Amino acid sequence: MVNQNLTATEIGFTHEDFAALLDKYDYHFSPGDVVPGTVFSIEPRGALIDIGAKTAAYIPIQEMSINRVDSPEEVLQSNETREFFILTDENEDGQLTLSIRRIEYMRAWERVRQLQAEDATVRSGVFATNRGGALVRIEGLRGFIPGSHISTRKPKEELVGEELPLKFLEVDEERNRLVLSHRRALVERKMNRLEVGEVVIGTVRGIKPYGAFIDIGGVSGLLHISEISHEHIDTPHSVFNVNDEVKVMIIDLDAERGRISLSTKQLEPEPGDMIKNRDLVYDKAEEMAAKYREQLLAKQQGATAAPAAPADVLAEEDIPPATDLEDEIPPAAELEEIPPAAEIEEVTPVVAEVQEEIPAATETEEQIPAAIEE
Questions:
Q1: By the 8 A CB rule, do 284 and 274 touch?
Q2: Hey, how many other C-beta atoms are within 10 angstroms of the C-beta on 270?
Q3: Contact in structure between 178 and 218 (CB atoms under 8 Å)
Q4: Are 259 and 317 in contact (CB under 8 A)?
């Protein structure tokens, strides 16, 4: 007959032993970890997720996507399993706060860095404009196009909804800056059909103290004051007017910076002809350009020839470098500081309270604000 009066010692496994065993095999989670989880319950403004912790973790709606989400069902389905980012430590109820948005941000930055390394051209629609330029989204991140890098005759405000080809100027996750250029994308495409030494016809679109900007087939080239004539010129205004049609020669194509350098000086049959007899310069343009190309070829082959003005003496268009645009460039991703776990207990219901309505405090605005309006 079996003795039914066994003591706890004889059994060898107490409630304390069982609790210790649970602690031994319990997973320890830390903020920043990426873990798999299964959707346990969808709430009006969030969802409870089973990640193997003692208490179901919680993901608020504003952390469900890099883009705006109006309903949790747009992102999550019941019993769906996927990866989650642990956003905060356990609160006093033992509940963790999760995020999908942070994972998407990390992967988006990785993708745009790869696109920049490949010098890829991307296309994106303008969703807003501000005082300094236009705003687009690349891989879900907010990108900024400085006004000086928008090549269109349309007012900025009319660009909203228009899709533009873009090149990367700056990709800096640490400083949260994503800066792009429409102009550089257009110039690169145009450059594929242009050659140094080629004569083109353009229109004067702007005049600065240091030179004139010439529109050649939809892209802008700089005719620097030093490249107008062999004779000294006090100001480009003394030679050109806006909307003048001019014949110029390409002397430099800088695809990396998206710049085209032009010259009329190299087309002068005699020094000063651009000032004294412009029609003669235009009539002899192809002939003088052929001589220029011969000199350029001879120079490339190591022969002694009179060099053309080097590109580095050409002043750049007055475009502020990316580092000088601090006040103009909105951040690519506005990640608000997450409050300590103790401050979010009211917005993260424990399992026992899953049927209750989430307090209104959870109904925070989407964390990527609209562009700052002018």
A1: no
A2: 13
A3: no
A4: yes
CA 48 centroid distance within chain: 33
Length of the chain: 374
pLDDT per position as a tens digit, 138-156:
999 999 999 989 988 788 8
Residue 237 corresponds to which tokens in the numbers above?
Answer: 């205004």
The C-alpha atoms of residue 333 and residue 140 are separated, in whole angstroms, by 9
Whole-number Cα distances in Å, 368 to 60, 63, 98, 336, 343? 15, 11, 18, 9, 22
Q: What is the pLDDT of residues 46-85, one digit of tens each?
A: 999 998 887 889 999 999 999 888 999 999 999 999 999 9
The secondary structure of residue 221, as a DSSP letter, is E
Measured CA to CA in angstroms, residue 168 lies from 83, 89, 114, 123 at distances of: 30, 37, 11, 11
Residues 218-237: tens digit of each pLDDT:
778 999 999 999 999 999 99
Question: Which tokens hold the place of 333?
Answer: 């991703």
Determine how many CB atoms are found less than 10 A away from the CB of residue 202. Answer: 22
How far, in whole angstroms, is CA 243 from its chain's centroid?
Answer: 34
What backbone phi and psi angles, to 5 degrees, belong to 237?
A: -60, -25
How far is the C-alpha of 251 from the C-alpha of 292, rounded, in Å? 9
Judge whether 201 and 247 are in contact, CB under 8 Å. Answer: yes
d(CA 27, CA 269): 83
Record the tokens describing residue 244, joined without a space: 């003048």
Helix (H) / strand (E) element for 278: namely helix 278-283
Rounded to 10 degrees, the C-alpha dihedral 61/65/66/68 comes to -60
